[in-house]
């Protein structure tokens, strides 16, 4: 396993990380422990979760229980402030936001569930443009000064809001974002136009989410066929979020990627993960898993090699 610095920080993260979105949902606490113990043995030191994963904070609880005896070996990331959807803390009367009041509430709740005294990277899960940016950055900075949070990051931010946040931090001598989590994959390259250049300018490392396009880049979704049983889009492959990936244009790209991977004699999923890692701005690729087998399989992607000619071919296929 190789390691990279996360953005402009000295925080060292494994090229492959573990996404905690399945913990508390598809994985019970024992399965979570098995996966994270195996991850550590493979050299993976990075786990990313959120206060809404698993519903009511279960993912954080399971992750905290799994790593508490080896806390110093992990880079622990979590997120706060997702919209008020099922899964938020039912005991809180506060509307999820990025205000000082909510941030102070959310971090204490996460620390308790995670059974730790500090979070390595605390991320704003979704932007709250109605909240004054300086208020958000000042509140996050206070957590860093108090030692409850080592670094801060953002997720799903628009470029202007991310840049505004960095300027607010610089002007007030606050802690700056060191990471951004946007959707990024061979199928979804929108961030390359403005988001990646901005992150490069402001020292922000990229943590792609949906690196396998919600399973589309494993080849399990077949054109004209129902989504596989138990898959993310089993109940709805033609509406909402699913249409970001499952459409005629992407199936055309997918066919070419399948041929490319077959000619190179590698798995399509390995190709997708390794392609992201060829970008030096990508600090770690976080992929959700439901089994040790999936975890072991993801790690194999790091051994794939892609020549400059092959990267150019992939660029032409997917751009």
Q: How would you sum up this structure, described in words?
A:
The structure is a single chain. This protein has 319 residues and is α/β, with parallel strands linked by helices. It has a single domain (3-211, 268-307), classed as NADP-dependent oxidoreductase domain (TIM Barrel), CATH 3.20.20.100. Helix content is 37%, strand content 13%. The protein contains ten helices and ten strands. An eight-stranded parallel β-sheet has the order 9-8-7-6-5-4-3-10. The protein has a two-stranded antiparallel ribbon with strand order 1-2. Strand 1 (3-5) and strand 2 (12-14) form a beta hairpin. Helix 1 (29-41) packs across helix 2, helix 2 crosses helix 3 and helix 4 (133-146) packs across helix 5. It starts with a strand and ends with a helix. The mean pLDDT is 93.
Summarize the structure.
The chain is of the alpha/beta class. The protein has 10 helices and 10 strands.
What layout of secondary structure does this protein have?
Blueprint: E1 3-5, E2 12-14, E3 16-19, H1 29-41, E4 46-48, H2 58-67, E5 75-80, H3 100-114, E6 119-124, H4 133-146, E7 149-155, H5 159-172, E8 177-181, H6 195-201, E9 205-206, H7 248-264, H8 268-277, E10 285-288, H9 292-299, H10 308-318
Parallel strand pairs: 3-4, 3-10, 4-5, 5-6, 6-7, 7-8, 8-9
Antiparallel strand pairs: 1-2
Helix pairs in contact: 1-2, 2-3, 4-5
Strand order of the largest sheet: 9-8-7-6-5-4-3-10
Low-confidence stretches: none
Taken as a percent bin, the fraction of beta residues is 5-15%
Name the CATH superfamily classification: NADP-dependent oxidoreductase domain
Q: In percent, how helical is the residue content?
A: 25-40%
Let me know the average pLDDT.
Answer: 93
CA-CA gap between termini: 29 Å
> What is the radius of gyration?
19 Å
Shape: globular
Give the CATH class.
Alpha Beta
Order of helices and strands: EEEHEHEHEHEHEHEHHEHH
Topology-level CATH name: TIM Barrel
- Look at the helices and sheets and give the structural class: alpha/beta
